Amino acid sequence: MTPPAPAAPAVPPAVVPAPAGRIRRVVWWPVRRWLGRGQRVARRVASAAYARWRRSIQVRVVTSTLFISAIVVAILGFFLMQQITTALMDGKTKAALAQLDEGLGSLQRDVGVSNDSGDRLRSAANGLKSRSGPSGLYEVYVRDTTQTYIDGYATNELRAQSVPQRLRDELRSGTTGTRAYTYGKLSYIGHRPSERGLIVAGKTSHYEVYYLFPLVQEQHTLTIVSRSLAGVGIVLVLLLAAIASLVTRQVVIPVRLAAQGAQRLAAGRLEERMRVRGEDDLARLARSFNDMAANLQEKIRELEDLSQVQRQFVSDVSHELRTPLTTIRIAGDMLYDHRDTFDDPAVGRSAELLQSQLERFESLLADLLEISRHDAGAATLDAESLDMRDLVLRTVGDVQGLAERKGSKIVLQLPGEPCMAEVDRRRVERILRNLLVNAVEHGEGEDIVVSVAADRDAVAVTVRDHGVGLKPGEGQMVFDRFWRADPARARTTGGTGLGLSISKEDAQLHGGWLQAWGEPAQGSQFRLSLPRTAGAELRGSPLPLVPPGAGGSRLLFAELEAGD
Amino acid sequence: MRRCLGSPVRWWGNALKGPAAVVTAAALTLCASGCAAMPGGGRVTSVKAQERSEQADESYVRLIPVAPQNNWSPRDIVSGFLSASASFDDDHKVAKEYLANANSWRPGPRPSIAVFADRPDLRLIGTGDDQVTIRLIGTQLGIITTDGQYTALQKNVQADYQVTRNAQHQWRISALPDALGQTMLLNKSDVEQVFRTFNLYYFAPDKHTLVPNGVFLPLVNREDLPQRLVQAVIAGPSSWLRGTVWSAFPRGTKLVGLSLDKDVATVDLSKEAASGNVNQMSAQLAWSLGPLSEIKQWRLRIEGRGVVTPDGKSDVQTFSDWQAYSPDGPASSDHRAYTIGAAGHLSTLNLNSFIPMPVVTNAPGRMVRPAVSPDQHEAAGLSPDGKQLLIADITSNGVPRALRTAKDPEGRFTPPCWDRQGTLWTVETSPGKSMLWKRERGKTLKPVWHWGLDGREIYALQVARDGVRVAVVAKIDENRKQVQLGRIAGSGDRIDVGSFVPVSSELAETDDLSWRDYNTLAVLGRKTRGTQVLPYLMPVDGSAVTSLGVGSLGEPVSIAAVPGGPVLIGTKSSSERLVCHQSSFRDRDSEWACSVAGSDPTYAN
Predict the structure, then answer these.
(1) What's the sign of the alpha-carbon dihedral B303, B308, B309, B314?
(2) Is B53 on the interface with A (CB under 8 A)?
(3) Most B CBs within 10 Å: which of A140, A189, A207, A210, as the mutation test of the B interface?
(4) Which CATH superfamily is domain B336-604 in?
(5) What's the predicted TM-score (pTM) here?
(6) Residue B309 DSSP symbol
(7) Which ipTM score applies to this complex?
(8) Burial environment of residue B117 by CB neighbours within 10 A (0 to 12, 13 to 18, 19 or more)
(9) Substitution target from B59, B76, B88, B223 for chain A, most A beta carbons within 10 A
(10) How far is CA A245 from CA A56, A283, A376, in A?
(11) I need a surface site. Which of B126, B250, B268, B315 has the fewest CB within 10 A?
(12) What digits encode the pLDDT tens for the residues B403-430?
């Protein structure tokens, strides 16, 4: 029956951290921004450096030379320093031991083996020290192991603690004549800082003598040597890098010139040649490059001439055929008009046949002329600002009859707002008509969907049919001249085999793309993408080439740009 | 032959092939490696000698004390304490470990010292379980007071140390002897090891000439020495010169700090110094710090503010700025030497040609051992038997007249001397007693009020150029004539000449002396009895006596010296009396040249 505990304020006051947090944020924000900026700059520099590294042989060679020679010089310098230090310390130790021997000898002479040796030991220490003079070459610490109340004598400011215990132990366990040395830190009374030193020790009867040599001079020498080594190393590495840079320059510059020449050659400037200097390998490269360029130029010119002749021939033939064709046409028309009057119905049939084939021949001739105009570069763009929807509607109206005959229904998907673009009305209508007629012909009576879309830069029209579709690889071939999906198929309709070629040429004249997608039994889709401004470069299309929901898993194989 | 000469190119080309190329390469390698070798020849480079090599720069030896060990007996503890007292490191840190209460004993940086001849005896008396008394019995030679003055005071000392067990059952000294107080017991060799003499400089009563005051200072740490010296200068003169000399540092002045940057020291004084004469303080510091080779220049600061001396040049002072205050008086190269010529006339002695020129042409041979007053108007001397003090007026070519005749039948006078104020000093002495006479300029000859050596026979007396110190040759026991240094205190009629202390014990016997400079006496003496009398240089601060010159001198009788001039020695032999000088007086070891016929050379200084 305990009463329920009073409800504790479960929620701690959560007000306090907020200002702190804000303050922290206020403080952190600029810092973080700075950090972010720094990071960005660093990243940019790094990526620029990486780009240079990737693109320039010279940078690569110089960098690796720098790196490798720095490592080699560092290793060499390390070993050299080691050698010098060892040599220096060997000399010092040798001299110190000689000094110790002399000191031990004089100590033995001065104090002998007498027991009452306090003062004599003291003067002996002074004598040992005074031989080095006031230059501070070494300090002396002398101990008489038989003395109870005095731990020996040290010269100048030296503390007895400078002698490490390990050396004392070594000497204590040794016999007369023991000599030992070690390195340690010499400490002094007063303000003098402790310094590293060499400590040699010797024992004669019950005296222990320690000579403590500060290694300041040696340290100084080593510092000077190491500094000069470092300086020489840096200079050496830089020199190597400079040499590497110079050498690679001599190789890289002609290679770069060759690359530039090749680029210009590729860009069509066939008269480009490399300068040949000297007789070395690079000169040979230049010479063969020049030979190659000359041969290429010659071949290309020959080919150009040939194709010019052919085009001219086609054009001429087309023109020449026109005149007789006109005459034949008049005669054919007349025969056709009077076909009912022929007694023999077979003759009437022939007249009809003649008429249809004459029409076909005419359109073929017109297409040939058109394509030869394109080949000759004589086609001009007569651009005006038009609403693509109007063009589509009009073309669909033209094709409506044929579609109904084939049993296909044309479905339009037009946007609500106008899709204005600078286009040549005649050419775009021709393209659209071609696409629609193609779709109706191969549509197998299924629905044909025409979509229009526009974005900031481009407008696009797609024509989708659900016919037999295209086999892999055919998406490219549909634009070839006189290409047929099924060679055995009768040419019942007006297709000349040049329609799509002309359409593609027209699209290219606008700076646009004409692309095809198709899959067997899935139908096909053609997409016309045009820049809104005549002559502008096209970066993308507002409509997808692959219709949504179809062939998603398969890669489209007709992603061919008009420029290719 | 023709072919060889005709086609040298081909010959050279052929030679380079094969072994020749190898030889060439080896030679080139040798040349290159030769660059790294030590030089094996080259021109001679002369190197300047060390500027000054002073006593303070010599290395010293410190005793390393032992801390009390666990199982030591009370006697060990006292012995260890006495030994450890000689180590001044870290303010006697180790010695204090022997005490039950480390704070009860504060020797400080300048403790008073009782100097013992040897290690004193220790006896255990009053045994107890937790407390014993150790009695120390020994012979004290003298004491060094806290002002650094050594006073010989031989006596037997007996002192009791209380030693008790502490909580860790270790024996520790609980009470130091009451008789000794804070005084430290050291034996003679410990004192010689720890203490050094340093000259502190104070002003003579004329307040323009500095007087050196040699004091004992413990040389604990060479780095602290400048600081210790400045503190000692500020603290004032030792009892030997107290009341006689005058310090420019106002009472209460303290050294705030002394820092050393390369060879420029900065001396920072407390605000009391502001009332003192900056020039005089600087001069005292300059001369006192002079022996320290690490200080070449210094700045004086009072309360952290720089003081500009002298005459507003810059605040960095050098030693040479204060040469005018030298204890030797103003430096001069015009030394006027006099001698008694061969004919017995007082003559000047040209120091270039060494030819005597008589200045007093009357009464030849009446006066010997002359001394010429600083203004060169008067000459004092002795009669040839030494029983009469004579004085002659040089300017009037006067006949020497007797100032005083010795009273005692065995009595005689020491050669007279003039100080720089023109006061004439001489001692009338006979075996076992002596009396000092002085004659101020234009006054009569009077005995001084107090003469500290009135019980001894005196052979020579020379007042130093600072007018405060006086050096004498006194007979201290049979056949032992010692150089002693005293000081002139007091003024007016109450002149006290006393406090004589021995200068050096290196010479067994001394005959005559003369002040070479403020720190050095030129003396005639012998190192051991029976050897020849030779000239020596004797520093008054107790450093080593050095011999002066080489070569034969005959029998030296008198000596005269002057700062920056040659030492002149009057000698006699069976046939003649000659004045000798060194062939090159700046070289201490140059040869004596005895060519001037004459005797008793002297300088008018």
Answers:
(1) positive
(2) yes
(3) A189
(4) TolB, C-terminal domain (2.120.10.30)
(5) 0.66
(6) -
(7) 0.77
(8) middle
(9) B59
(10) 11, 21, 51
(11) B126
(12) 899 888 889 999 999 988 889 999 999 8
